[in-house]
Amino acid sequence: ALLALGISQSARTPDPSHPYGFTNMRYIVSLISGVGIFMMGAGLSWYHGIIGLLHPHPIESLLWAYCILAGSLVSEGATLLVAINEIRRSARAKGLSFYQYVVQSRDPSTNVVLLEDAAAVLSVAVAATCMGLTSLTGNPYYDSVGSLGVGTLLGTVSAFLIYTNTEALLGRSIQPEQLQRLTELLESDPVVRAIHDVKATDMGMSKVRFKAEVDFDGRVVTRSYLEKQDIEQLLQEIQQVKTLEELEAFMLKHGENIIDTLGAEVDRLEKDLK
Questions:
Q1: Across all residues in the chain, what is the average pLDDT?
Q2: What domains are defined for the chain?
Q3: Which residues form the Cation efflux protein transmembrane domain (predicted)?
């Protein structure tokens, strides 16, 4: 329910108070989910394991315990398969490996489902093994050790979720090879003399915020403008200039047009970058 809320909120259209939209809601709810796993899942498992070691007692209702584990294995295993297939499909579309897609947290909601269910399936296996040893030997310490193992597993998963989603919320850079491609595209353009202070932030869900300070070559921009003009007519206009007022009117007219040409070059570069 929490992840579904985050997905629906992240799809909201930007408004004046949130001009960049609500994409980060996926990371926020995934972070909350990770903290919840750590506090509730890992915390209760560790508590049960420690109490069991300090005050061991026989396990009651083993049949019900095995039925619950079996039901958990079926439900968690089914959603785990769905998450694996979804990540494989998305990773293939992005040209990434399964591991890269998960580590880079490209889709936080799917990652949470994948890691939670993977931890749940492994935890069921650990719990069933330790409960089986307890039922065979009559030693309750096996069950307590299993609880500690489950708690450690959940704690590790939650720590990974907290770390990756925090990194995404802080604004991490895109991959170096992608940033280099964008930088080379700008530097190779004839209208660009130099670029400075390049930053590219991964906003999540295939959105990137790119920023660069660009030093444009004024001669190239002006030449681009002149190529679209009738040079002979332009020369006649210059020859007709006799007064300061006429010179000012001539400069204002063509100066504004050259600035418009620069704006068109900026739009072209933005389109190429996208």
A1: 86
A2: 1-170 (1.20.1510), 173-216 (no CATH), 217-273 (no CATH)
A3: 2-170
